Amino acid sequence: MKSAKITGIGHHVPERIVTNEELSTMMDTNNEWIIERTGIEERRFIDPSKDTLANMAAKASKIAAERANINISDVDFIIFATITPDYFFPGSGVLLQRELGLEGIGALDIRNACSGFIYALSIGEQYIKTGTYKNILIVGGEIQSTALDLTTRGRNTAVIFGDGAGAVILQPSTDQSGVLSTHLHADGRYAEELYVKDPGSSRPHDERQPEQILDTSTYKVHMNGSMVFKHAIVKFNEVINEALEKNNLKKEDIDLLIPHQANLRISQFLQQKLELPDDKIFNNIMKYGNTTAGSIPIAMSEAWQQGKIKENDLVCLAAFGSGFTWASALIKW
Length: 333
Ligand code: UT7
Known about the structure:
alpha/beta, Peroxisomal Thiolase, Chain A, domain 1, 32% helix, 23% strand, binds oxa(dethia)-CoA
């Protein structure tokens, strides 16, 4: 069975930079608080007159295809991870397919939030191994900005999230390189600790109709930040060690850890726990905030562009987020 290899990677973020200072003019927050608690200095927000999730994803996908040396028309399956699809349904996979002119191929949508990209990678890996598909396009991306409560009431989430998309091309490996293993977990007991309730089907008919909704706060992200934080630091560490053990590898073998960009303090905690030097962990949350399913492919793409991922490197991806879900992947590049 051939393993699955990432042969091309790209990302796209909107042009508009939103600094902590700009957010401070909209709500009671400040640059010092945001940097101290999250490490975020700025994030990107879309221009709703020209950016959509599908077109950002298409831009990232074209870069990934070019770097994989394939034509976009060679893509034979799409997997799209996002929790902010263009429409409530259908998912953004079909919109990306339309945008890229890939009529007829399958498009699968994944809703596992911050872990979404690794869940998607894991599915793509199985299809490659079984020989079902040969050029899978996997995308993770979000438009969070237009859903944020940009007032003081929403400040615990509004300062964290940003927009952007990343994409990879997954192909059968011709040598020993590729995805070594993926590890997926979930614990639905914590579903409501980080969620958006509406427009969900949990409501009875008379509460589900938009004209009857008086309180729209249930359309915004609800997050129990400290609870998420506490679980994240434990599960990130566990799932990375699980991947290492599965492959008989040690933490010293990791050449680059790319954690989901949730909070710089979480990344720093992990770095300390795994005793990784600065050049073995990649963070770009400072520039983009938390782009949920987009964060890992955007970070991986930037790390690759900066020459921080080289052939034969052992790259570890890890994520934790809404669900709760958490996941890891080890890749021999
Ligand atoms: O993507 C995966 C999912 N997300 C995460 O992994 C996020 C995990 N959690 C976190 O990153 C952190 O919990 C936060 C960054 C969200 C919050 O940091 P914290 O250190 O846990 O702060 P806190 O929520 O305990 O709030 C501390 C104080 C509170 O004031 P009082 O009650 O102490 O007076 C908040 O009201 O900070 C206040 N606060 C703010 N102050 C200024 C909350 N948000 C802000 C803000 N600006 N934006």
